[in-house]
Amino acid sequence: MAHAQAQKVWRVEIRVPRDVVAQFEGALEPYCQVITWYVEDDAASWRMEGFCADAPSDDALAAALSRAAKANAVPCPAFAVQCQQSDDWVAENQKQFPPFSVGRFFIHGTHFDAAAPVGKMAMCINPGAAFGSGQHATTAGCLRALDDLAKERKFARPLDMGCGSGILAMAMARLWRVRVIAVDIDPIAIPVTVENAGRNALGRYVRAFQSHGYRSRGVCRGGPYDLIVSNILARPLMKMANALECHLAPGGVAVLSGLLERDTSRVLEAYRRRGLFLMRKISMDGWDTLVLSRPGGAPWGRPSPPGACPRPDGSFRASIPGKK
C-alpha cells in the first residue's frame, strides 16, 4: 500500500521582549494556525514559534512584525522560516499533549479515548487550540489553587478574566456547579471556550464573551464576584489591580497567575496597596500563582446581590432595573 505523502509545515520563529508577547502573537495570528512561546534562561526575552499550513510571505511577515514593533516601541525582531515535514502533524501535536493530572483534575485531549482514573474530574481540551491546555505551570498552579479552595468553601459567582481555552472556567463550573463568566480580550478565545465547555457538558454553566478587561457591561452586571481567576502576565495584572479589587466582593478570593518568580513581589505589592492580602503562594517551575483575599464581610457568608456596581470606596450598590 502506498504511503501518504508527508505533510509540509512551515515554522516561523522570533524572539521578543516578554512584555510584548501578546502583541506579537496578534501579529503572527493571520499567518499561523498554532502559536507557542517559551521561557528560556534569559527571562527578559521569549522565543515564539508559529506553525503555518501554507508558506507565509516573507514580505507580509516583515510588515506585520514591523507594525507590532513600532506600536510597542521595541526593535523589530528578526524572523526565520523553516519548512518541516511530518508524516502526521496532528499525531505529533497530540504527542505534545499527553493526559495529565493536577489535584483532582484529569486533563486530556480529544485524541484520548480511555477511561479517566477513578476519583478524578476529567476535562477534555482540544490540543489544536492556540490557548492553554493546562500543562503550563501557570495554568496548573491555578488548577491546584482551585482544587484547594474547593476543600474549604463554596463559591457562587466566579469570574475567569483572560479565559483562553476556558479550562479554568470549566474547572470552576465542575467544582461548584455554578454559572461562571469567562472573558478574554482575544475574540478567538470565545468560540474556543464555548466549544470546550460544550465538549465537557458544561455549556449551560459557562457564559463566555469578549471584554477589554473589566470594562464591559457584562462583567459589571455579573459582579461583584466572590472568586476571580486571572492567568495572564505580570504587567496587565498590575494594571488591573484597582479594577479587580472593585469587582471583588468583600471576603472574596482572587487567584492570580502568569508570574515569573522575579515579578511576584511587584504584583503582590500592587494588590496589597488595594487592601488584598496573601493567603498562599504556589510555586511551580519558576512560576508563581498567588491566592489573595479581600477583607470585609464574612468570607463564608452570602455574596453581595447580583448586578451590584462598585463604588469608588470599594463598597457596592445593587443595580435596580430602570434606576440609575
Automatic annotation (TrEMBL):
Transmembrane segments: none
Catalytic activity of the protein: L-lysyl-[protein] + 3 S-adenosyl-L-methionine = N(6),N(6),N(6)-trimethyl-L-lysyl-[protein] + 3 S-adenosyl-L-homocysteine + 3 H(+)
GO molecular function, one term: protein methyltransferase activity
GO CC terms, sorted: cytoplasm; ribosome
Residues reported in the UniProt entry to bind S-adenosyl-L-methionine: 139, 162, 184, 231
GO biological process, alphabetically ordered: methylation
Range of residues in the leader sequence: none
Database matches in InterPro entries: Ribosomal_L11_MeTrfase_PrmA, Ribosomal_PrmA_MeTrfase, SAM-dependent_MTases_sf
EC number: 2.1.1.-
Region Disordered, annotated ranges: 298-324
Keyword set, alphabetical order: Cytoplasm, Methyltransferase, Ribonucleoprotein, Ribosomal protein, S-adenosyl-L-methionine, Transferase
Pfam families: PrmA (PF06325)
Localization per Swiss-Prot or TrEMBL: Cytoplasm
Xref: PANTHER family: ELECTRON TRANSFER FLAVOPROTEIN BETA SUBUNIT LYSINE METHYLTRANSFERASE (PTHR43648:SF1)
Sequence similarity: Belongs to the methyltransferase superfamily. PrmA family.
Function (record text): Methylates ribosomal protein L11.
Protein name, per record: Ribosomal protein L11 methyltransferase
Source species of the chain: Varunaivibrio sulfuroxidans
